[in-house]
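In response to the reviewer comment on reproducibility (Comment 2.3), we provide here a single inverse folding case reported in full, input and output, so that an independent group could reproduce the run without further information from us. The C-alpha cells appear first.
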C-alpha cells in the first residue's frame, strides 16, 4: 500500500480573517452536514449493509465513500472555524480600501467591475467576493478613490482605476 500525497498543503489550521456573514455561512454548512446530510447518508449505509454482501453492494460502498467525504469536510470546517478571526467591525470609512469594503474598478477600456474584499474562505467570484490574499485585493488595499492600481497577473499586467469605495453594500 502506497502513501497518499497531497496535491496542495493542508491549510485548515492557518489563521485568517473572515466577515461575520462568511463565518455564519461556514457554521451553517457544518450544522447542515452534521444534522442533516450525515444522518441521511449514515441511514442509507445502514440500510444497504442490511441487504447482505457488502463487497458487491454499490449503494453500501458509495455511501461509505460519501460518509467519509462528509466527515473530512466536517473536520476541515471545524479546524477553520477554530482559527479564523471574525471581523465584527465595519471597515473604517476613511476613504481607503479596507477588508470588507466594496470597490468599483474601471479597466483601461472603460469597463467597470465591483468587488468586495473578504477572507479566502468566503471568496466567490459569482458574488463578486475576492480574497484579501488575491492579487487584485493586494493591489487595492490602502488605496484611495481615483488611484490607479497595477495588478500583476499570470496572463499579463492590468491597470485599474478605483472609481468607488463603499463601506456598506452599494444600492
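Designed residues, in position order:
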Amino acid at each position: 500500500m502506497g502513501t497518499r500525497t497531497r496535491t496542495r498543503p493542508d491549510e485548515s489550521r492557518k489563521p485568517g480573517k473572515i466577515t461575520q456573514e462568511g463565518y455564519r455561512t461556514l457554521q451553517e454548512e457544518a450544522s447542515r452536514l452534521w444534522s442533516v446530510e450525515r444522518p441521511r447518508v449514515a441511514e442509507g449505509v445502514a440500510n444497504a449493509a442490511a441487504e447482505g454482501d457488502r463487497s458487491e453492494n454499490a449503494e453500501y460502498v458509495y455511501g461509505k465513500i460519501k460518509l467519509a467525504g462528509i466527515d473530512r469536510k466536517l473536520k476541515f470546517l471545524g479546524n477553520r472555524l477554530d482559527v479564523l478571526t471574525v471581523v465584527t467591525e465595519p471597515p473604517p470609512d476613511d476613504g481607503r480600501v479596507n477588508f470588507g469594503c466594496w470597490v468599483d474598478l474601471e479597466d483601461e477600456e472603460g469597463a467597470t467591475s465591483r468587488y468586495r474584499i473578504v477572507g479566502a474562505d468566503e471568496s466567490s467570484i459569482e458574488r463578486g467576493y475576492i480574497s484579501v490574499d488575491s492579487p487584485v485585493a493586494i493591489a487595492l488595499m490602502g488605496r484611495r478613490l481615483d488611484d490607479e492600481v497595477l495588478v500583476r497577473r499570470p496572463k499579463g499586467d492590468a491597470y485599474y482605476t478605483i472609481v468607488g469605495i463603499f463601506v456598506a453594500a452599494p444600492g
